[in-house]
Automatic annotation (TrEMBL):
This is Enoyl reductase (ER) domain-containing protein. Belongs to the zinc-containing alcohol dehydrogenase family. Quinone oxidoreductase subfamily. It comes from Pygocentrus nattereri (Red-bellied piranha). Coiled coil: none annotated. SUPFAM superfamilies: GroES-like, NAD(P)-binding Rossmann-fold domains. Residues 45-372 form the Enoyl reductase (ER) domain. The gene is VAT1L.
Length: 419
């Protein structure tokens, strides 16, 4: 792996905020320097554990590609990492982020297939939220000219996970039906689009009500996430569904398995329900695990049901699944070129706005994917007033930063329930 740059110890978020406030352009002109901006997670916990800091730039090792980052994907998993709400969390401080897009700036030895100047998107095993990253070439993919950098940063995690679950794990075919939770989110929208590439597939989705108008067209039937979706699905399809995609581990396993038709597949791929506030709640964690249904394999055999689990990052980083993932990315890029799929970007945020961006996911506000746009300057204060914005404004006032009233909220493309 690349040698990570040493953190500049005396640099603090506050100092960077002040510097940027004095001279907004300095945020984007680190190109000639040996330093770069990066988001740092200083310890597990709330939003206050995130700051933007300066680090020395990494240099590519053998088999690695150095990328000048343009955009980074913000995933639900990043919230869980921040809280330390994952198995075997790495040590902090760390630079979060699992995917980015940008331009190849240099290559280590043995990096055939890439050239300086190539437009690429990449998976990272952490460290993606920085101006420059180095990552093994097995996790880097060239992107088509027509794909924007934010789209590319919204592509890999959501579409690869959705594709592999639908087509590799559960063999989606014409005429089948699929149930997906959080249908308005990054993965949810990728699932909906991929289902529409197969004739006559029925998609049942759940989502917060305020999103319904915006995403109704993308699924066949949409339910409020708070209603008894099992009863609603049964009213429409008494025999159940062929595929259940469950990212709410614990709450839904029994319901999901119960909804399957014979030979149907239930896939567990997330545990969003374990996030119940800004910091990890041991009570909720214990409750969630306690609620996880005990599945009897003999019952699966008797009822002709398939139960599966899927973790893209484990496949990629721990189980040597690079070539399977690469093949999937190529198939997805073909679908993109044929205009059958298109990543949905919810909003763009400067690195310095990472807390506000994360708060938007906590607030269930996003439709599609949140992107950290490395070249974006923080937006002036004022337009929106969410709890985070208000707290930040108050803090800034207290600290007498003066009238540098120009940071805060990201560029939004959809309605915000908290405004
Ligand atoms: N296994 C894998 O390989 C893999 C890969 C990617 C993602 N995932 C998992 O897939 C799920 C979706 O990921 P994503 O990145 O696309 O995120 P996302 O769906 O965009 O996440 C945000 C949405 O999740 C819903 N949600 C459910 N529980 C929530 C909670 N406790 N707090 C806030 N929002 C909650 C909300 O939508 P509604 O209010 O509309 O329900 C919210 O808008 C996550 O569980 C993630 O870990 C797994």
């Amino acid at each position: 792996m690349a040698k990570e740059g040493l953190e500049m110890t005396e640099e603090t978020e506050h100092m960077i905020e002040k510097n940027v406030a004095k001279e907004p352009d300095s945020a984007v002109c680190a190109a000639d320097s040996k330093e770069m901006r990066a988001v740092l997670l200083t310890g597990f916990g709330g939003l206050n554990k995130l700051k933007v800091t300066k680090k020395l730039m990494p240099e590519p090792q053998e088999g690695e590609v150095k990328i000048r980052v343009k955009a980074c994907g913000l995933n639900f998993l990043d919230l869980m990492v921040r809280q330390g709400n994952i198995d075997n969390p790495p040590k902090t401080p760390l630079v979060p982020g699992f995917e980015c897009s940008g331009i190849v700036e240099a290559m280590g030895e043995n990096t055939k297939g890439f050239e300086i100047g190539d437009r690429v998107m990449a998976f990272m095993n952490y460290n993606a939220w920085a101006e420059v990253v180095c990552t093994p070439l097995d996790w880097v993919y060239k992107i088509p000219d027509e794909m924007t950098f934010p789209e590319a940063a919204a592509f890999c995690m959501n579409f690869v996970a959705a594709y592999m679950m639908l087509f590799e794990v559960s063999n989606l075919r014409e005429g089948m039906s699929v149930l997906v939770h959080s249908a308005g989110g990054g993965v949810g929208q990728a699932v909906a689009q991929l289902c529409s590439t197969v004739p006559n597939v029925t998609v049942f989705g759940t989502a917060s009500p305020f999103k319904h108008e915006a995403i109704r067209h993308s699924v066949t039937y949409l339910f409020d996430r708070n209603v008894d979706y099992v009863a609603e699905v049964r009213k429409i399809s008494p025999e159940g569904v062929d595929i259940v995609l469950d990212c709410l581990c614990g709450e839904n396993t029994g319901k999901g398995l119960g909804l399957l038709k014979p030979l149907g597949t239930y896939i567990l791929y997330g545990s969003s329900n374990m996030v119940t506030g800004e910091t990890k709640s041991f009570f909720s964690l214990a409750k969630s695990w306690w609620q996880v249904e005990k599945v009897n394999p003999i019952k699966l055999y008797e009822e002709n049901k398939v139960m599966a689990g899927f973790s893209l990052l484990n496949l990629l980083f721990k189980q040597g699944g690079c070539s399977q993932v690469k093949t999937t990315v190529q198939k997805l890029l073909s679908l993109y070129s044929e205009k059958k799929i298109k990543p949905i970007v919810d909003s763009l945020w400067a690195l310095e706005e990472v807390k506000e961006a994360m708060q938007r996911i906590h607030d269930r506000g996003n439709i599609g994917k949140l992107i950290l746009d490395v070249e974006k300057s923080p937006t002036p204060l004022g337009a929106l007033s969410t709890p985070v914005h208000r707290a930040k404004k108050k803090k800034q006032k207290k600290e007498k930063i003066g009238d540098s009233d120009w940071r805060i909220t990201g560029q939004r493309f959809h309605g915000d329930p908290t405004s």
